[in-house]
User: What shape does this take?
Amino acid sequence: MLNPMEYQEGCKDNVISQTADFRLTRYPHADPQSQTDKWWSVLIEIEGSIQAFIHKAEAFLAEYDDPDAEEESFLVPVAYDPADLHVEKARQPVVIFARQGFVHVLNRHEGDGGAANRFGVLSVHLGAIVRRDALDFDADWPDTTPIVVPDDAVVMAVIDDGIGIANNLFRTGPTQSRVAYAAILGANVDAEGSQTSIGRTLSQKQIDGLLEACTGNHLLNEDLFYTLTGQVDFYDQVFSTVAMRRSHGTHTMGVAAGFPMEEQCSNRPIICAALPSALVEDTTGVDLLPTLYLAFHMLVKQARRFRTQAGDLAPAMFNLSYGNGGGPHDGTGLFATLFDHYFGAEAQGAQEPQQAWLTVPAGNLNLSRLHGQIEAGATETALSLAVQPDDRTATQVQIWMPYAATEAEAETAEIAIATPFGPAGSIATDGRPCHSLRDGAGREIGRLSYEFAPAPINRGFALLSLNRTSSLDPKEALAPCGTWTLTIRREANAPDQVHAWVRRDETLPGFKPGGRQAYFNNDDYKRFGKFGAPLPVDPPDTTSPIRRSMTLSGYGCGAAPIVVAAYTAKQAEMSDYSAAGPLNRPASACAADRDGPDMTALGDDSLVLRGVLNAGSRSGTMVRQGGTSTAAPQMARAATGAIGLHGLQAREWAADPTAYPGPIQRVDLTDGSNVDRVGSGAYRVT
Amino acid sequence: MADRENAYNAYNAYNAYNAYNAYNAYNAYNAYGGNVSADAFALITNRDGIVSSKIENITPPLPGMANDPNGLKRLTPSQQSAIFMSVLAPTVEVTASSKGDLPTATVWRRDSMNEPGKMRYQEMVEMSAPGIDQLVEQLNYVAGYSQIRADRSAEILAQLALPIPFYQSIGYIDPARTPRTLELLDLAAGFAFATIQRVKFSLGIKRPIEFSPQVQPMIPTPTHASLPSGHATEAFLMARLIWKLMRASEAPQYNDQAYWGDMLMRQASRIAVNRTVAGVHFPVDSAAGGALGLTLAEHIEDVATGGGWTSCVFDGPGFDGKLDFNWHALYDPEQDKMCGTFKTDGYQWGSSEQHKDRRGDDPSALLNWLWTEAVAEWRDVTPSQAG
Assistant: This one.
């Protein structure tokens, strides 16, 4: 019943998420025999309680699943405790792990034949292929016993990849860690006593024990330590950049929460979640969102364990140094609302409130040519899309139509696609919502689709998905590389803008899939100024639809987090890459009230000395890492001085941080007046 | 062609090693420089000018020193080296046999060398080959470690030659300061080279490159067999010898803390692991090489100073394919002793045993001279006596 071979590639009108369907039906070049057995992380939004979902899913599987199957078809992580499972909501996100066959079922609209989606699933967001070895079906509930900390303590929570938790900046002694909890989400399951359904979690006691076991003759063997934590397992191809000199998470956590061991820091306990570094098999476009939701869910619960000696919940300062180019860019997308879900006004429900703030980077996509803007009144706009050769991951372009209070009121438009070799079809938002692009042999190489994203987004959403352009398997259908063209035809006098974003998929160091970034490439985009330097701001008279504005990371569009841009110290100006606002307006009432980043912090020492020095993977080493990723944790560190002030809101602090206590001072920039890029100003940690 | 072979041969270390080599230090003091032929013509006419026709005064010297170590210092390093090698080389012999289907190599130690006719052989290292299935499993490590090639490439390329600079950065080693130490390390590496090659040849273990076209090492794979790793053998041999010199020097910093020894072992381990990163060795090769190198270090010390030696068994089939190399399973730097059993994650893959010297098994006076001179280089210099 769950054989995905029933689900052929090509347009279908019964799927919830075209993105997920496109990815699930790509050529199974990796491990084709186990297509039905592949496990995915999936973020679903459901109506009702998680428990009700589980019951419905189990009833369905009892009826349809292969009775000889040895394993479950899905797993709800133990991070959702018994209380979570019974919370009823009209719409709530939940992360599950599911076998590919069952994901197909989840992704089908209600009313579809024999395998109707009867589980109350409202949306499906496909994450990444998960190694079966990283899943534990027998895990116990996580430890939630209280941890007493000094009255001035601030819990530092870091979500990143490649976190060198043994670095001495996170220790108070040779075998005494400041890390109270570490979730290693990419690790193989621990043999006994696991308290997580994915990867491993380590308590401070366990970390100290491993430090002890790896220390001999006063020397800590850090290579061995990361083998024992499960972060690095070369035999099983479990890889983390902690095996290398430079790791993103170690640097980030060093900036946010690193203190020399000699300082014996006792009031900055650390909790962290290390995301999987290498998602080797998935070339369909790895998406970390489900893993991020889960990581936040785990850490938000852990943060509540920390109580001051007076018995109050200690404040918690979160940092997430990740970016994402997708979403409607108005603060209503799943990327943006992740943080509202955990940090917004209603997040705490009836629980005892805990002061919890979050810093995220503005993003580094200012010059990446990933944003196209179709002006109000433009009846026909062509976006040239450069699709690169040897791109080993799928390319995706999202087109977000203007806000509409209801689906019936949504603006209609026609979107046509041309391959490098000529016109290849079109869709109309009011009648032809899906079009498959096929090669000469009739195989799907791309798909153009349209759907209406309901509240809180309330926008029409068109999606162009293209196969990768290169494969080592001759049987795989490939999209041609070269210049593609998306043409958007609108009615005359359409009052609002339409926006398009190319999904970011270039491969970062330590990751394997081999993505090469597609980008918009219209001739009238002016890249350089008169002296040949890159233009960091769109020229005022530009007629190009390609824009630097509205490049804020999807995560940075939300209402809750403190969004941090980056500046270059020596030149005292914004770093060219630092992404810009504003947000996409008009938008729904749920949209975020921001014009761009909240504030700016150091991203680069100078144009030559890119990045900022901080912790390398091994104790005592310093490496450079730059970008808004590095700026965000600086502000997390600075905010610890003020987060404990009763009633102070995160972005209230960010609007005027030097008015409050904390290690921060203002820096004057030569181009500091652009609110869409700078926010309230530039700051340096003192 | 010869140059190319040299470049490809990781063991042809002597060329690269010349940069660091003790002999160069002596050249600076060599009055005859490198221009012997030009000098010769000058010396002919010069002699004609100042020597009369007949040798009139003969001043008999004392007889030359026969077989006395004190004479060694008058020799060039290469002559010394030949003499030391002539002492050391005959102390071992390698034979090949098989245990069931799996080949075994034995390094024999000849003792009672000073009593001709009473010479005996004792097993010093018994090394059995792992099976193909284990190596197939071990290939997972080769694939996994390949992910950090970019990070390690500078080290891997630098370590194509004998890794002296990596020990110079821990111990204070320099041709002017520690010429005998360098000579000893050079001798040890040369001695081990022959043993390594015989053992490799006896076991005939294939290289990772023969298991999959996807290994694609970042350096050329040497043509000799995989196990034991020559780099691991030499690295652990040199690390332990340096640690022994440090300990024998009685300089307080070395005797107070075993972390000098620990650091030397880490360095050796990193050099060994880098060969897996490069794609030319399995972890089990490093384990075997480590065992061999540590054993040979003890043997060289024993030939030079007496005091006992160590034998070890490396049980290839016992090294489960899922095991990575971990040097802690082989050696404890605090005691300067190899572990009684070599165990990782519950799998035993070897053992070692300490032995006392037998009667007549006296140290070699010639090697003892080199060892003593080398130890002296690590001692603190005492204040000169004024007046």
Notes: The two ends of chain A are 61 Å apart (CA to CA). Residues 1-5 of chain A have pLDDT under 50 and may be disordered. The longest helix of chain A spans residues 50-64.
